[in-house]
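Q: I have 275 residues here and want to know how they pack in 3D. Can you give me a structure?
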Amino acid sequence: MSAPLTALGPDSAEPLPRAAGLALDLTGRTALVTGAAGGIGRACALRLAAAGARVRAVDRAAEGLETLAGEAAALRGDLEPRLLDLTDLDAAEASAAGADILVNNAGLQFVRPIEEFPPDVFHTVLTVMLEAPFRLIRGALPHMYGQGWGRVVNISSVHGLRASAFKSAYVAAKHGLEGLSKTAALEGAPHGVTSNCVSPGYVRTPLVERQIADQAAAHGIPPERVLSEVLLKDAALKRLIEPDEVAEAVLYLCTPQASFITGTSLTLDGGWTAH
């Protein structure tokens, strides 16, 4: 059974209340968020809609999208659920046409040593987490270039900056996404388009919860020890990041105050990469 994902100790540095977020008006902007049915994607879709954006919420989980649409009903912006499997790369690219803001978030995790890692799973991870973002950016840029404004925000990870054992596909995909994001920044700059990564550590999401058992098996420890001895071992702040905190960072990168920020990674890791 998975260990509870709770904050640890007096140094957990609890997140600020939601009201402390940056005020922003995205009225008239269209945002596309992938992996929007849960976790970070859900938080981003709701935050952008609350700021007035028209949000295309993309996911392959129909039930999760239906729930999300209900949650967004009272927000300022409209939210349009779009059922899409990102392994359909042509459909992914087509879905991004006309987007002013693109948030590449969808991801999956599989924990195994390289010699035991199924090649088909490796291929799927890279398709969803690297090739699909490329196709989505490719689909979004013509509209962004045409209007002289656009925001590409790629949800990367500390694993786009560092490596961990047993996560070869995830680490490879996130490192590739960091490079893709920088390339898009260089190409987009003359057209008013910024491209950045938001690179969190371990976030309180189903993706993290699901890997507790795999991490326990890989490291030979009980599941209840995974949080403190593996996931948060090297973090200065001994707690998981909340999805809403990641969404606030995404929102910030869409503000006028962030217009000079491009080609970089905003790291939200509680000091994990300070080592």
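Q: Anything worth noting?
A: The radius of gyration is 18 Å. The chain has nine helices and seven strands.
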